[in-house]
Design goal:
Spore Coat Polysaccharide Biosynthesis Protein SpsA, Chain A
């Protein structure tokens, strides 16, 4: 079974207010709750840890009150905090770790299971899930970064053995992986996208 780490310790400075990004309401729920619900519904996820930091103290309290395990990281950055939590929680094991950003409110259990199944059929120890760039053009979305015609989704799988790992790039044409929330404007865009594909918010 796969362990999951939800990365929820970023400053969220582009949100434009003092609220913590993981708790920003999207589709009438805190954004991180959509991600946690998807992980809980997955047939492949055994344990869930939420990685917070001093940047997200309210998130630490709220998610803990929901009954999830929370580990506070130094808040130095996404990669640094991920390394910290893997070393702290899994350093003596060789676990399969799924990492996911807290700002993917459209993610669902079916996509997570599809990714894990693809990983289990892969010959490589790590996997980066990416969305083809043209999906962003189709929905008039602005990608945060483009690497070789794909956009990293914020969903990855790796081993906890702290070794450099060869990585497979899994390309999925999923709008659910393309929409991440970094600003209040992104919430408006999300509602427009859902309206265009016939989903009411």
């Amino acid at each position: 079974m796969v362990k999951a780490i939800v990365m929820a310790g970023g400053k969220g400075s582009r949100m434009g207010d003092d609220s913590e990004k993981p708790l920003k309401e999207v589709l009438k729920k805190p954004m991180i709750l959509h991600v946690l619900k998807a992980l809980k519904g997955s047939k492949n996820i055994k344990d869930i840890i939420v990685a917070t930091s001093g940047n997200t103290p309210v998130t630490t309290k709220v998610v803990g009150n929901w009954g999830f395990k929370v580990v506070e990281t130094p808040g130095k950055g996404y990669v640094e905090d991920l390394q910290y939590i893997i070393q702290k929680c899994y350093s003596d094991k060789d676990e399969v770790i799924l990492t996911i950003a807290a700002d993917l409110p459209l993610i669902n259990a079916e996509i997570i299971d599809e990714v894990v199944d693809a990983y289990n059929n892969s010959q490589k120890p790590a996997m980066c899930v990416a969305v083809p760039e043209d999906v962003f053009s189709e929905y008039e979305l602005k990608p945060s970064i483009v690497l070789d015609d794909v956009v990293p989704s914020g969903l990855n799988i790796l081993r906890s053995n702290n070794k450099q790992q060869d990585e497979e790039v899994l390309k999925l044409r999923k709008i659910e992986l393309a929409v991440n929330i970094n600003s209040c404007e992104d919430i408006v865009v999300l509602e427009e996208v859902l309206s265009n594909i016939g989903i009411k918010t």
